[in-house]
Amino acid sequence: MTREYLQGTQIEIIRQVERGKIKHILFDFDGTISLLREGWQAIMAPVCVEMICGDTQPTDAIREEVNVMIDETTGIQTIFQMQRLQEMVRSHGFVPESEIRTPEEYKEVYNDRLMVPVRERLAAIEKGERTRESFTVKGSLHFLELLSRLDVTMYVFSGTDREDVRNEAACLGVASHFNEIWGALPSVEEYSKEKIIREIISQHKLEGPQVLAIGDGPVELQNVRDAGGIALGIASDEVKGEGWDEAKRVRLMKAGADILVPDFKEADKVVEYLFP
């Protein structure tokens, strides 16, 4: 299939959208703006395999099953991923029923391991050893600056715990751009990306093209597309912080992305396109 780009750019147009009406913008955080949690998949996958297999030797099939689950659930709240993990542990039957943990306990194991590199990165910024730019997707800080000059309201809606995402947004110097920073709460009934989208549309009496979701996970893009909004997918190589991640690009296309970019290096042109 031939890719169609906005002339002279790497902005890929999957389908034409009604432009110029956007009033509310919902950002995913990790992998869309922040790279503080880059590599989380490589931490979650071994945790899942370990919990599924117990004392049994892991197989390639189990590792692949875990990788597929993580791919499909990128952007969703961590607790939902851990609910899936619990189902996988039970279905494989390697761990006695009495030793199967709760989703909250699995999440605690994963978070404890993930926060080791995250805290090291935050400390490096605070000490001046690393810049904020080195832990953000290329051009994202400039993109937020450009949007903040427009008549739009911006939010973060993240699958990461609320306290953590607010702390990390503040450390990266982007918190002030957002009207609200939402993240996961202890009760799954209190918060979901789908719930936030519905509430914003209802509260502000919005039509579909007045809402834009920007993210690197299929969940938020699918949710906003289902609500009639515009979906901008960020298919970035998180290790480099820029350039196309082809596997991510394919996932975001399947989720219904209207527009795809590898990063925000062409922020000015993205804004010109969305706000003609």
**From the coordinates shown, what is the CATH architecture of the largest domain?**
3-Layer(aba) Sandwich
Distance between the termini: 28 Å
Number of strands: 7
CATH class of the largest domain: Alpha Beta
Integer-rounded radius of gyration: 19 Å
The CATH superfamily of the largest domain appears as HAD superfamily/HAD-like
State the secondary-structure class: alpha/beta
Q: What number is the mean pLDDT? A: 95
Main sheet characteristics: 7 strands, mixed
Regions with pLDDT < 50 over 5+ consecutive residues?
none
- For this structure, the CATH topology of the largest domain is Rossmann fold
What is the total number of structural domains?
2
| Spatial strand arrangement across the major sheet | 1-7-6-5-2-3-4
**Mass-distribution shape:** globular
* Strand proportion: 5-15%
- Helix fraction, binned, reads 40-55%
Elements, N to C (H/E) = EEHHHHHEHEHEHEHEH
What are the SSEs and their pairings?
Blueprint: E1 12-13, E2 24-27, H1 40-53, H2 60-73, H3 78-92, H4 103-126, H5 140-148, E3 153-161, H6 162-171, E4 180-184, H7 193-203, E5 211-215, H8 218-226, E6 230-234, H9 246-255, E7 259-261, H10 267-274
